[in-house]
Amino acid sequence: MRVSARWRPRLLLGLVALATLLLVRSGAGWAQGEEQGGAGNRHLLIGHVYDGKGQPVAGVDVTARTAGESELLAEAETQDDGRFALSFGPDVASLAALQIQLQRPHFQDTSVRLPSETLAALQSGDATVMADVELVPRITPAFWLAAAIFVLMLILIAVGSIHNTLAALVGAALIFAVSYLGPLVTEDLFIFDFARALRYVDWNVIFLIMGMMIVIAVVERTGIFQWAAFMAYKLSRGKGWLLMIILMIIAGVASAFLDNVTTMLLMTPITIQIALSLNLNPLALLMPEVMASNVVGISTLIGTPTNILIGSFAGISFSDFVVNLTPGVVIAMVGLVLYNQVVYGEELQSSAAKGALSPMLLERLEKRGEIKQPGHLRKAGVVGAAMLVLFVLGENFHLVPAVTALMGATALLMWIRPDIEEMIEAVDWTTLVFFIALFIAVGAVREVGLISLLATGIGRLVGENLLLATMVVAWLSAILSTIVANIPFTAAMLPVIASLTATIPGAESKVLFYALSVGAAMGGNGSLIGASANMVTAGIAERAGSPITYGYFLKRGFPALIVTVALASIWLYIRFL
Amino acid sequence: MATESERVEQILCAVRGGPESRATVTYAIDLALETGARLTFFHALDAEFLGYATIGPLSVIYQELQEMGEFTMLILVDRAQRRGVEDVDYVVSEGNVREQLRQVAIRTEAEVMVMGRPTRSPGSNVFQLREIEAFAAELAEEGGLKLRLVPLEV
Fold this sequence. Notes:
The complex is a heterodimer. Chain A is α/β, with parallel strands linked by helices. Chain A has helices at about 10-30, 115-125, 140-160, 165-180, 195-200, 205-220, 225-235, 240-255, 260-275, 285-295, 305-315, 320-350, 360-370, 375-395, 400-415, 420-425, 430-445, 450-460, 465-480, 485-505, 510-520, 530-545, 550-575; strands at about 45-50, 60-65, 70-75, 85-90, 100-105, 110-115, 130, 135. Chain A is built from 23 helices and eight strands. In chain A, the strands form two sheets. In chain A, strands 1, 4, 7 and 8 form a four-stranded mixed beta sheet that branches. Chain A has a four-stranded antiparallel beta sheet with strand order 3-2-5-6, with no helix packed on it. In chain B, about 45% of the residues lie in helices and about 20% in strands. Chain B is built from four helices and five strands, in the order E-H-E-H-E-H-E-H-E. Classes of the chains: A alpha/beta, B alpha/beta. Chains A and B meet through helix 6, helix 9, helix 13, helix 16 and helix 22 of A and helix 2 of B.
C-alpha cells in the first residue's frame, strides 16, 4: 500500500503519538503490575523457577495434576521473573496429593510432588508459596545450531561483506527456519517460536533510538556542528594543540547527547577544511576527535547504542550513568588529551605558524561556520533541555526514556513543522530493523542456554572476586570490541553480566554493567573497525586525500584504548570497589 | 619534471587534495607555468563508503562532502595562483569517478591529465595502476589525452 504525500506527515505524527501513548501505558502498567490480580475465591499456589545459576526461567509450562493420575487441575506459565501462579477451584480441598510438572524446551522435564504441609496450606484457602524449583539445562542439537548461526551472524557483520542489517536478518531468519522446519525432523531442533522470539525484543531501546533519530535529524541541519568547529578554529588562534583540545571537547560533548556517527559525519569535513587552512595534517585533529567521541559518549544513557542497551536491560537511569560514569570519563578524557599531545604534539606545533589563509578562503570558512537555521536550533535547544530534565527526573514517576524521546521528537516536529518527507528519511529504519533482528538472534542463544553456559564459565574464572570480575569484564569487552561489533557483543553479554551480578557479592551496585559500558565503547578506539564512527571518519578523510589505514589507526588507537580503559577502571575501583 | 614538446592549452589535475596530493599538484602547477596552459583541478564526490554505516540523511552528508571538496579545490586554486598560474579553476562532481573524469576531460578538451601514481593497498585508490593505464589509453584513443602519473614524492 502506498500512502499519498499529503497523508504522510499526519501518518508519521500519528505513529509517533500512538507509540508514545502505548509506551506511557506500558510504563504505567509496569508500575501497577505488582498490585493487580486478586485471588478471589480461588486457591493460589505460587512458585518460582530458576536455573542452575539462580536466574529466573521464563516461559516454563507449569501444570498441576493429581498424583498418579492424568487429570489436569491447573496450568500456568512462568513470567520473566520466573514466577508462576496456579489457580485451583474449591475441589482442591479433597486432594490427597498434588504433582507439579514443569516443561520447557532446552531444560529437562521436572516433576515435583507437593509436600503435605504445603498442600494443607493450599487447601486451607490461603495463597501458598511452594519451594523454588530448579530446572536442569539440556543441550540439544538446537543449541549447537543456534550457536553456529549466531557466530555466523557476527562473522558477517565483522567481515562487512553484506550490510549489518542484512547480516542480522539472515541470523534471525535462519533461527526461525531451524525452529519451524527442524522439528519436522526432530523435536530437539526447536529453538523458539515467533511469539517467544518477540519477547526478547526490547521495544524501549527501539523507540528510544527512533525518537533520538528524529531529534538529531533536526539538529544536524542547523549547522551547529560546523559553527562549533569554526569557533574552535577562531578560539585557538592558530595554536594547533589548543585547536585539538577544543575539537576533542566539542566532539565528546556532542557524542554524549547525540550519536557518535552523526557527530563525526558532520565534524569531519569542517575539521579537514580547518586543518588544511592551517597547513596541519588533518589526521592530527581527526584521530583525537574520533577517539574523544568514542570515550565521552558513555557518560549518558543516550550517548551510545551500547549504553541504551545496558540502561534498558539493567534499569540504569540517565542520572545513574551521569553520576557513576561521567567522572571516570572526564579522567579518561584528560588521559586521552595528554596521550594525543604526545602522539601529535610535534605535528601540531611545527605546522602552527604556517597558517596563512587567503581572504577568499577565510571568507568561505567563515560562511561555513554560520548557523543555517537559528530558529530551528533555538527550538531544538528548548526541547532538548526539556528532554534532559525528563530523562533525569522521569525515573521518579516511571517515565521510561523511550517515552521522553518520543514526546520530545513529537513536540519538536509539531513546533518546527519540518519537511516531513525528509524527517521520514532521517529515521534510519535499517538500524531499527538491525536491532530487532539482533534481539531475536541474541534471544535464540539465550533460549538454548549458550549465554548461561558462558556466564557459568566466566563465573568459574572470576569466582566471587568482584574486583577481578570488573577488570575481566572491562578489559575483555574492550579487547573484543576491537574485532567484534560492539552492539551485538553488548547485547549478548547483558544476560551474562546479569548472571554474574546475581552471584558475585557486592555486584548489586551494577558495577559490572558499567564495566561493560566502558569496555564496549572505549574498545572502539582499539582498531579502525572497532566503531562505526571510526569507519565514517576514515571514509571521509580518505576522500579528502588523508587516508587512515588500518595499521595507522591500530598504532595510535590501541595505546589510547589502554590509557582510557585503565583510567576508567581506576575510577570504577574508586567508585564501587 | 617532464617537459611538453607539443603545445598544451589545457591541463586536468585529478586529485583528492590532501597531503598525499602535494607532489601531484606541484607537478601540475609547474607544468601549467611552463606551458602557459589553463589548469583545472578535478575532485570527485564519492560517498559509497557510507553504504554499510549507520547514517543520517544522505542529502546533508552530500552537502558536507560537496563543501569539503570545493574548499579543498579552492586551496589548490589559491596555491596555483600564488605560484603565478593565471588561468586556473576547479570542478567538483558527483557520481561514478571514472565517468565523471571522462566527461570533464572531454568538456575541458584537456590534452594532459595529471594524477597521483597509485601506490597503496587495494581499496585506498579509486584506480589501480593497471586500470588507470587502460583508462588513459582509452582517453588517448578518443581525444589524444596524455596521462602523467606522479609518484607520491618527487
